[in-house]
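@channel sequence for tomorrow's demo:
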Amino acid sequence: MRVVIVDDEPLARRGVRARLVAAPDMRVVAECATGGEAVTAIQALAPDLVFLDIQMPDVNGFEVLRRLPAQKMPLVVFLTAYDRYALEAFEAQALDYLLKPIDDARFMRAIERARLLSASHRLPEIERRIRALLETLQETESRPPYRTHMTVKTGRRVTIVNVMDIDWVGAGGDYVTLHVGEKDYLMRHTISSLERELDPERFLRIHRSTIVQTSRIAELQTLDNGEFLVRLRNGKELRASRSYSQRLEEWL
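structure tokens (generated this afternoon):
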């Protein structure tokens, strides 16, 4: 099978290529760092299989597929770090995806599934499913893309965390900790990017390293320095810095 790898991260492309070494019947014919390159390569090379990243800066993976003409749709394995796409939209159409960071065993299952689909000549059915996925996404793209759940990977285990169960989020460098009841989940994510993915009607940043779900706030106490002490319903006390106190006042 002739394969095209599409991802704006060089390390991610190398990771896919390295895993394909274990599949001698797969031959990489192109690597693309942008969505625009991907459209051109897929139209010119007509690959059998495409590993397609969704989040790319110029043209995202879904737009790449929209730009492909009829009869040019290859088998697609989506690459994503964003569970809000993978866990709902893809499974609804029985399309294959890999969550980053990629699990080796899961990767080989995707390869085997691609082999079976190719051998069974079910490409028209797969194209129909992809077109249905794109239509569904087009209907929902006008809605704010706020997270409904998150995936936290620890070894071979992937935990699904409903955002409505999160009490508060603490940050340290490139990592955040989700505090959910008595459990804590560490994930690689900056707090600024996570803030943009959470519904501002429900989550409020009160410090450069703290986001709180407003429904968990039980009490506020003003401090002499202009800051707030935020007490949650579970008794946890958090400090709201002066630079974020205006947000709390507006929320009140």
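heads up for whoever presents: The CA atoms of residues 168 and 212 lie 4 Å apart.
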